[in-house]
Amino acid sequence: MINRAVIVGRLVRDPVLRKTTSGASVTSFTVAVDRKFKAEGQPTADFIQCTSWNKVADNVAKYMKKGFLIGVEGRLQTRSYENKDGKKQIICELVAESTAFLEQKDNRNTALQSDESVGGYKYTTDTTNSLPQEQQSGYSENYGYGNDGLDIASDDLPF
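^ Single-stranded DNA-binding protein, sequence as received from the core. Prediction below:
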């Protein structure tokens, strides 16, 4: 049997960190995940309830805020409880075993031009060509096929 789920979406609100009586950390949060196909009259996103424990819970509560893009990997879990009216409620939630902090909603554009440093390694998240100028000069628009481009006859095309 396999019970794995991976979602990527934005946090709906700030995560809530609590401690159990034994001292374990538990964080609850909701992730809004866009639907690929949007039917008429249907919501454009699903709101997935997530729970994380211990170190993962501490990291989510410490570093994540409303609007941040997050990746969550874990397992689906169903539990039930009685609400205030005495009715049985069933909840299906994603128990996060790992999370990935992808980007902040308010820093999407500025992150593309900034230099980052992670684990002692510096990398640039700029989407432009990052080759040094002396290496860029070896490349040309025609990719080595001369100035006329590719010479393809109409008989060579499969359609």
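The CA atoms of residues 63 and 117 lie 17 Å apart.
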